[in-house]
Each structure stands twice: as structure tokens, then as C-alpha cells.
Specification:
two-stranded parallel ribbon, Four Helix Bundle (Hemerythrin (Met), subunit A), 12 helices, 349 residues, 3 domains
Length: 349
């Protein structure tokens, strides 16, 4: 019997197995197929039985229909199987209301077109959230809120496909009906391109968005940020290690140029160690195996690097044992090879 977390869903050949038991289900049907494909693959001679353990009337029970709909959509779009135009997909309004029910942990009445009732029992923020998708319809792409801890002033970010004067008027009218005053500066209406630009700036670190203080009430699939690719994640983890290695190498050069060759050995060794750690991140088969970037270079990690051969053969012993006097040029070659591996990540792997 082989037990594994989701990290074992890729990169393994388990043709000896004939039964796959899923203890929990992913939201993505492609991930489910990857799990099954560990056993149902080339050279499999037996029928593979798949068992999904699902508790009745649970969240996973409701996930079955979602997985089925996603799989039908993928089959229709990618493999031209089935009838895509007959698929029953949830509307943005329905998704919004379902998400809102999860947040407030109680069912809400489906809103109707018309003035918002001034109910003293329903908090204004909830009334505004209920009526917003009715006002904007399918224009609404995202709705996020936060509250100032000191003043209690609500802040909202409303994202629509295209901002017009009518959009501002609709949101302002709804705010007046709910709060009895004009739209404050703390309520921002953005179009799709502005919102996606902010997401890009946040990804690159140019701005910081405090997601812990912001509640996402609704966000359409159209504007949800995409997960970074495997190569991007590797570069993000390896870049700080490479930057530290470059600083250590400059320190070693300064010491050597000043006549302190013996003292330059320590930063040279640190340069090699950091470059080796960066190469581990770039070469490891499954990035999920690393809880965090390595802080030291071991013999086990050396085997990972040598498998992908990002360095010349004569450099590999120095990478494992460390440099000595007269090895500065070889350390520079290791550093250069690591930089090349970073830029040509697809070729290294």
C-alpha cells in the first residue's frame, strides 16, 4: 500500500497498483486525472479501480457535480466531446449569492429588482452586498471590502468590465439608498484592466495588497489572478539565493585583490553553497518537496543537481566539497552556470 498527499499526484510511475483511493477530492478535475494516471498509464496490464471516499451531504458531496461540470466543459472545449452549448453553468449572480451565504454563514433571500428595503435588522453592508449584483448585473466582476478598525468606515473595491458614467450613478444610487449619503471616496469603482494592472504590480512586488484585511465577497473567474507557472515559482525561490551568492563572490574578489587570499576562501565557499542551493530549487523534480528554499548544500541535494547536469563535470566536485585556494575562476564558472540555468530554466529541466 502506498499512502501519499497530493504531492504524489505527479511524477510517479505506479503501474504495479490496480486500485486508487481518493480520500479527498480536488476542485480541479485535471488533478484528479493526474492522481489516477499514476496507476493507469503505459505498461499497466490490469484494470484500475478508482474509489472516491465522499461523505453524504458534505462539501465534497456537492463538489461532485462541480467536478462533473468542469470535466464536461474541458471535454467539450479541448477534445470536442459532448455538447458545450447544453452545459448548465452557474451564473455570476448565483456564484455571488452562494459566496455571500458562506461568508455570513446563513441563507439570504434572493434579491429582487427594485429599491433596497430599509430594514433595521439587516446590516447596511449586507444590504448593499445583496443589491449590488442586481444593480450591475453581469457587469460585476469583483467585490472586495474592508473596515477601518478605528473609525468603522467601510471601504469597497467594485470591479466591472467597463466603467461608465452610468456605472458610477448606479453604485452611488445604491449607496445612498443603503447608507443615506453620497458615495464616499473610500468606495472605488475600477474597470477590468485597472484591476488586472494592480494584480500585476502586486505580483512583481511594486505594491503591497494586504489581503488579510480585505474580504473578497465575490470574484469572477475572469479576473481571478492566475497561479504562477512552475518556472516562475522556481525563479522566485532561487533569485534571493543567487543574489546572496553574487554578493559573497564580490566580497571574495575584494579580499583577494587586497592581498587577503586566505581570507577570501570563506566567502568563496559561501558563494558555492548558495549557488548549489539555488540549483537545487531549479533542478528538483517536484517543487512541492521543498517546504522552503534550502539553507545548506548536502550530498543528497548534490545528487538532485548532478541528475540534471547544469554544470561542467570538473565543477561538480567543487560544488560538493567546496573551493580552495586558486579556485576563484571555477567558483565564477559555477556562479555563471547558475545564472544561465535561471534564464534557461526550461532547458535545465
Amino acid at each position: 500500500m502506498f499512502l501519499s498527499t497530493d504531492s504524489g499526484a505527479t511524477g510517479l510511475n505506479l503501474q504495479a497498483a490496480s486500485v486508487v483511493v481518493n480520500l479527498d477530492l480536488p476542485w480541479n478535475p485535471a488533478k484528479l486525472e493526474q492522481r489516477i494516471a499514476r496507476a493507469w498509464r503505459k505498461h499497466q496490464t490490469n484494470a484500475v479501480q478508482v474509489i472516491n471516499l465522499v461523505t453524504e451531504s458534505s462539501l465534497e458531496h456537492r463538489m461532485l457535480s462541480t467536478l462533473s461540470a468542469k470535466q464536461e466543459l474541458a471535454d467539450g472545449v479541448l477534445d470536442a466531446r459532448g455538447k458545450v452549448d447544453e452545459l448548465q453553468l452557474p451564473s455570476t449572480k448565483a456564484s455571488f449569492l452562494h459566496r455571500l451565504e458562506q461568508i455570513i454563514e446563513s441563507p439570504i433571500a434572493k434579491p429582487v429588482v427594485g429599491p433596497v428595503a430599509d430594514s433595521q435588522q439587516t446590516p447596511p453592508a449586507q444590504r448593499f452586498a445583496q443589491a449590488l449584483p442586481v444593480k450591475l448585473g453581469d457587469q460585476l466582476l469583483s467585490f472586495r471590502t474592508s473596515t477601518d478598525d478605528h473609525t468603522g468606515q467601510p471601504t469597497a473595491w467594485i470591479v466591472v468590465d467597463r466603467v461608465t458614467d452610468q456605472t458610477h450613478q448606479q453604485v452611488n444610487e445604491l449607496w445612498q439608498q443603503t447608507y443615506g449619503k453620497d458615495l464616499p471616496n473610500s468606495v472605488h469603482v475600477l474597470d477590468r484592466r485597472e484591476y488586472q494592472l494592480l494584480q500585476k504590480l502586486a505580483e512583481t512586488g511594486m505594491i503591497h495588497i494586504n489581503d488579510q484585511a480585505i474580504k473578497t465577497v465575490f470574484e469572477s473567474e475572469q479576473v481571478k489572478p492566475t497561479q504562477p507557472s512552475d518556472a516562475t515559482r522556481r525563479r522566485q525561490l532561487a533569485s534571493p539565493l543567487l543574489a546572496q551568492a553574487q554578493r559573497q563572490f564580490k566580497m571574495a574578489q575584494l579580499l583577494a585583490d587586497g592581498g587577503f587570499e586566505a581570507e577570501s576562501i570563506a566567502p568563496l565557499r559561501k558563494t558555492v553553497e548558495l549557488a548549489g542551493c539555488a540549483l537545487v530549487v531549479l533542478c528538483v523534480t517536484d517543487l512541492e518537496q521543498l517546504d522552503q528554499p534550502p539553507t545548506s548544500y548536502t550530498a543528497t541535494q548534490h545528487q538532485i543537481v548532478t541528475t540534471h547536469k547544469p554544470l561542467e563535470e570538473d565543477l561538480l566536485p567543487i560544488l560538493l566539497k567546496g573551493p580552495g585556494q586558486g579556485d576563484a575562476d571555477k567558483v565564477a564558472a559555477i556562479l555563471h552556470a547558475t545564472e544561465e540555468a535561471m534564464t534557461r530554466l526550461d532547458l535545465v529541466r
